[in-house]
Structures are given as structure tokens and as C-alpha cells.
Amino acid sequence: MKTKTISTIFMVLLSLSAFAQQDAGFSMYFFNPLYFNPGYAGSREAFSGTLVDRNQWIGMSGAPTSQSLTLHSALRNVRLGLGLEIYNDQAGPMRNTGINLTYAYHLPINEITKLSFGITGMLNNLSIGWSSINIDNRNDPSFMNNAATSWVGDASAGMYLYKPRFYLGFSVNHLLQSRFGTTHAAGADLAMFYRQYYLTSGVVLPINEKTDFRASFLGKYVNAAPAVGEIDGTFIFLQRLFVGAGFRTDKRVNIQGSDNMLIGIVEFEMTSFLRIGYSYDYYLNQTGTYNSGTHEFMLGWDISSAKTKLSSPRFF
């Protein structure tokens, strides 16, 4: 009974922490950069899509789950890219669903290098389902409705420098820092999105004719939440099978220890236009004793109107 109580309290604290981060984090971020960088839209020179499902802290009731569907494409014979994202993020009773529309402009630097600039318009629906919370006084006016909801508009911007074997990106989400005054929610006037800053980079190095190695990095900072850093290394076999590992850390240190984790990643290019991926997060602190880790699944595709194979392998 004592263990169950501690687990429940710990779960509530983790849910609040996840909501403080506001935007979900994905381990396979290098397969879905449009989620946090509008400049990525159209960079794959095809009609591209990525569907990701992430389930955190398996075995714990109310654990965070996140889903993201991104679609983007370059307009032929012009330097424009367009993108669309639909997403859902839930942690305990709190849910954030929304839709993003993205516009990007790609400027050639030389024959193989481009620099793109993108901007995204965001529309979020935030809700808190009181029915899923054990409330001592059901007559409390703050909890009379089943859910507190709010529609919030926002924006993000980013730049993305890329060529076949290298990329560097910087983006800022929630530029407007919009407030979301959920109906009947305590502290509604203070609740808001905070700007989130992303710095990402990656490079692919050839080892031999059949093997490449990709190193990548993601840094994320948002005020009032821990800074996050992640490094990843992936071996690429025959430009089809990706097998790698990563390490993620942040500045927070609590009673469970520092928030560090190991990540295992595998992706397989089933065809020239279809790929699948999976990642597993293992927590290095006491968090791991309360759950079975985090699972993430990815399905991606590239559809080109050209009759020939895409001009180069897609490492990012």
C-alpha cells in the first residue's frame, strides 16, 4: 500500500513536470524536425510525412502519451515549402491538441547547400479533465465542469541549413507566449506558453562503401523548465538500416536523482519511399523502478512525382 501511494504521488509530480515542458519531446527527433523547426518544410524534395506515437513510463496510470502527424512538401520549380502538423499530447488529466500550418523559403547557397527560413501558425486546444482526478469536495466551484478548455493561437519560426550529409537548425516555438485561461481553472490568468529554443545539428561520415555513421545533437531550453541536451550516434548499413543509441540529460536534480536516460533507436528503409522506426528510453535514476521505460514508434514516407529514384539518400 505504501509503495502504491508513493507511486501515485510520484506520477502526479511527473505529469506536472511534463506539462511544464509544454511541448512533447521525441527521441527520434532527427526523423521529424518539422515538429520543432518550420525551416525543415520542403527540405526532402518530395511529399513527405511522419507519424509518431510516443508512450512514456509504461506501466504507470495516467502516464504521458504523444502523437504527431507531420506532412510537408516543396513546390516544384519554386523555392517554397509548405507543411501541416496535427498533434496530441496528454499527461494525466491535461491534454493539448492542435494544428500547425507552415511556410518555408529555401535559398540555395551552392550546388548542394541550402538555407531555409520558416514560420508556423499554431492553434492549440488545452483541456483539463477534472473527472479523472480524485477530488475531496465535488461541490467546489473550481471543478464543477467536466473539463476546463481553452483555444490558443501562437507562432514559431526557424532556420535550417542543410546539405546531403549535414544540417544545422535553430528555431523558437511559442513566439507570442500566449496565455491559456482555461475556464474555472485556478491560476488561469497566469498560465501561458513559454518560448522554447531549439538548437540541432547532425553530420553523416562514411566508414566504408556499405557503412556510414551519423552523429546528431539536440539542445532545448525553455524558461521555468529544465534545459535538455541529447547526443546520438547511429550506424547506417547499406543506407537502409539505422541502428543507434543516445544519451539525454537535463539540469534538474531531484529526489529521484538527475534526469538522465539512455536511448536505443532502430529505423529501416522498407522501400525507397517508406520507412519505419522504433526507440526505447531507459531511465538511469529511480524513475526506472516505477515503470518499464518509454516506447516510441515512427512511420515515414516520401512520395516523389519524378520517375527516377530520389536524388540522394535521406539521412535526415
Beta-strand percent range:
over 45%
Number of helices: 1
- CATH third-level topology: Porin
Q: Which architecture would the CATH scheme give at its second level?
A: Beta Barrel
Secondary-structure content class = mainly beta
Shape designation: globular
User: What count of domains describes the coordinates?
Assistant: 1
Look at the structure and name the CATH superfamily.
monomeric porin ompg
Head-to-tail CA distance between termini: 48 Å
- Multimer state: single chain
CATH class, please?
Mainly Beta
Describe the structure.
- With 316 residues, this protein is mainly beta.
- The longest helix has 20 residues, at 2-21.
- The radius of gyration is 20 Å and the shape is globular.
- It has one helix and 16 strands.
- β4 (94-108) and β5 (114-129) form a beta hairpin.
- The strands form two sheets. A 14-stranded antiparallel beta barrel has the order 1-2-3-4-5-6-7-8-9-10-11-14-15-16.
- It has one domain: Porin (Beta Barrel), CATH 2.40.160.
